[in-house]
Structures are given as structure tokens and as C-alpha cells.
């Protein structure tokens, strides 16, 4: 499995949040969907950062935010990214040190004024359980028959 690509994980579509959504609503939605984290994107889909239950909790404990404050106040901007073409070995190394990685895809956006803007789109959030489920489900399937 180590050399297979991240694309083989077949992740579900990501849950994303708008930056102006309140921390209280984000907590409620994350609980309902059984997620610990999700990307926050602007109207054009640009990745602004990640929100985690941990980041909300620590910011609330430190008195930096209230439940009514926008989620943009608790964004984690230091997160790892992987691409569909990266191998699962690289992902495994990231997940040994971090709780999740953001699966992204680069694309080019042409503006009305003729300018070209490189952009990234969120394809999903991958965690250790996603990788573990893949490995245990596919163990031995990709080995040549003897």
C-alpha cells in the first residue's frame, strides 16, 4: 500500500465552513457529522485555514473567543497538505506526526481582467482512521499472486 496514491482512498466530499459562521454553529455541525476538524473557505473556495474542536476549546479557555464569535477567529493556518498523486507512504509519515492532512488540488483561475490566479480546492480531509481502514480492507489485495 505504501506506493499507492492518495487517490485510492476514495474520500467523501469535504465538509467546509464559511469564515463568518459562529463557533457555536461550527461545534454543533462538527458534532452532528462526527468530525473533529474541517476546512474554512471563502466564497470562491479559497482555503483560509482549518478549524478544529481543539482550537475552539483552547481559544475559549484562554478567553480569546466567545461562542458567538466567527470561526475565522480560531483558524489553524499550519496544516499539512497532500495531493491525489502523492503516495500513501508520504501520507502515513504526515499522520504519524499530525492528526489530519488536507487533500487539495491545484487549479488555475482566469480573472475578468486577464490575470491568472493559482488556486487550491479542497478535496477532503484525511485522518489516520481513513488510512488504517484502507490498509486493513486492502491488505494483500495488491500483492502479486504466487
UniProtKB/TrEMBL annotation:
Highest taxon listed in the record's lineage: Eukaryota
Domain CBS: start-end pairs: 10-67
Pfam families: CBS
Gene3D superfamilies: CBS-domain
Keyword Ribosomal protein recorded: no
InterPro entries the record matches: CBS_C, CBS_dom, CBS_dom_sf
Record keywords, A-Z: CBS domain
Matches recorded under PROSITE patterns: CBS (PS51371)
Protein name: CBS domain-containing protein
Organism for this UniProt entry: Xenoophorus captivus
Top-level taxonomy: Eukaryota, Metazoa, Chordata, Craniata, Vertebrata
